[in-house]
Amino acid sequence: MPCGVGGEALGCKIVTAFSNNSQLGLPSVMANILLHDPNTGQLKIILEGNTLTGLRTAAASVVATKELHSGEKCRLAILGAGIQAKAHAFALNHAFKFKENEKAKKLVEELRAECLTDGTDFQVSSTAEQCVRDADVICTTTYASEPILHFEWIKPGVHINAVGAGVNHHSELDTRTYQNSVVVTDSMASASEELKGLANIGVPVYAEIGQIINKTVKIPKTHCTIFHSLGR
Ligand SMILES: NC(=O)C1=CN([C@@H]2O[C@H](COP(=O)(O)OP(=O)(O)OC[C@H]3O[C@@H](n4cnc5c(N)ncnc54)[C@H](O)[C@@H]3O)[C@@H](O)[C@H]2O)C=CC1
Ligand SMILES: O=C(O)C1=NCCCC1
Question: How far apart (Å, rounded) are the C-alpha atoms in residues 42 and 37?
Answer without folding.
Answer: 5
